[in-house]
Specification:
38% of the residues lie in helices and 14% in strands. It is of the alpha/beta class. The chain folds into two domains: 201 residues, 3-Layer(aba) Sandwich (Aspartate Aminotransferase, domain 2); 109 residues, Aspartate Aminotransferase, domain 1. The strands form two sheets. The chain has an eight-stranded mixed beta sheet with strand order 1-8-7-6-5-2-3-4, with helices on both faces. Helix 2 packs across helix 8. It is globular. Bound molecules: pyridoxal-5'-phosphate. The site of pyridoxal-5'-phosphate has 12 residues, from helix 3.
Length: 385
């Protein structure tokens, strides 16, 4: 047998087990309290005797009952009156951007993104041969007027109006209307990235921006990564009705990536009410965890970090006190925290260009009150050392 090249292959090593998540990892929702038993029941009921339709050629937009369940969810939780035929199931936000690029944009088009923002989106824009133009976010979120000063010919804007990522600010109605007005006037698109809006602790979740536009210029991108967990790799796009013929005609060329194994299970999970119960339960839990994290910071790190409560979401952004700032950057603070056994993300790392702000992004959702308190003690000791 030809052994050519075997001597240059690395020695076989077993795969390394992933390290447990450390407080304040922002990627983690609460994983231990997911209703696994109910999920397993829906899985079993789906696949023990699968629906014949599942084993034949499924609509390229995804499993119809899941699209129905998502439309119901969006009407109830996001005030978005859409129908199942508008929904395309994806494997997440990267596929969503690829799909939108393929159906609405041309190579080289300028796409506005938020600065600071989610680096994955900028990368997805580049991968689709578009030009991503990060534009500064202020206390009211993304501002189309500012963005147009440098990029008047933009063809799309990807925004997080319900809760900016990572700063957490909500875009007010006036800014939303300006953005839609621009999109209508320029035949451009607003891509609304809405990833964790169900977790609002005060009042009702704000309606999705797509619900404001009767002019069909807003495309909604949703995800199950925060409300369930990201290993699921399921998300979706809601297209305006007028775009559907175009998306349908492009769909034979679109490489549908969302696995069909989990779509019917998720559909049952949603239709049964287990999903809504889970979200409500997590919302109460995360509200308490936020309070615990804030109290711990006040008690153990008030000389180091300044942090305000957030009305929604799964993480806080802590500002460094002037004293801490005079001693180190947020990157150095994050490095020290990591060596001490806690994970905080420097706010500066969310900037595509030169960072305009420093701070520490701290997830609280995936950790018990005790873990959060201990985490703050460890962090404070690391920053004082
Ligand atoms: C800003 C933002 N958008 C979208 C998503 C969802 O991405 P995906 O559905 O690919 O997991 C996330 C997840 O963390 C996010 O932080």
């Amino acid at each position: 047998m030809d052994q050519g090249g075997a001597d240059i292959l690395p020695e076989k090593a077993p795969p390394v087990a992933p390290a447990p998540l450390q407080p304040f990892d922002t990627s983690a929702p609460e994983l231990m309290l997911f209703p696994y038993r109910q999920w397993a029941r829906h899985h079993d009921q789906t696949w023990r005797r699968p629906d014949a339709a599942l084993l034949s050629r499924v609509d390229p937009f995804g499993w119809p009952p899941l699209r129905e369940a998502i439309a119901d969810h969006l009407r109830e939780w996001r005030g978005l009156p859409c129908t199942a035929d508008q929904i395309f199931i994806t494997s997440g936000v990267v596929e969503a951007i690829g799909l939108i690029a393929a159906t609405t944009l041309n190579e080289g088009d300028d796409v506005l993104t938020e600065e600071p923002g989610y680096a994955v989106l900028n990368r997805a824009v580049h991968h689709n041969r578009l030009v991503s133009v990060p534009s500064p976010v202020d206390q009211q979120g993304f501002d189309i007027k500012t963005a147009l000063q440098t990029t008047p010919r933009a063809k799309a804007a990807i925004v997080t109006p319900s809760r900016h990522y990572p700063l957490g600010v909500t875009m007010p109605l006036s800014r939303r209307l300006e953005l839609i007005e621009w999109a209508v006037a320029r035949n451009a698109y607003v891509i609304e990235d809405d990833f964790d809006s169900e977790y609002r602790f005060q009042g009702q979740p704000l309606p999705a921006m797509m619900s404001l536009s009767n002019q069909d210029r807003v495309i909604y991108v949703g995800s199950f990564s925060k409300v369930i967990f990201s290993a699921l790799r399921l998300g979706f796009v809601v297209f305006p009705k007028s775009m559907l013929p175009k998306v349908r005609s492009s769909s034979p060329q679109i490489d549908q990536q969302a696995s069909l194994m989990l779509q019917p299970v998720l559909a049952r999970f949603m239709h049964s009410g287990d999903f809504a119960i889970h979200i409500r339960r997590m919302r109460r839990l995360y509200a308490k965890r936020q309070v615990a994290a804030l109290q711990a910071i006040k008690l153990h790190a008030a000389d180091l970090l300044i942090v305000d409560p957030v009305p929604a979401g799964m993480h806080l952004v802590a500002n460094l006190t002037p004293d801490l700032q005079s001693r180190m950057s947020d990157t150095e603070a994050a490095k020290r925290a990591k060596s001490a056994g806690v994970t905080v993300q420097p706010l500066s790392s969310f900037f595509a260009g030169p960072p305009m702000r420093q701070g520490l992004v701290m997830g609280f959702a995936g950790f018990s009150e005790e873990q959060l308190e201990n985490g703050v003690r460890v962090l404070a000791a690391a920053l004082r050392a």
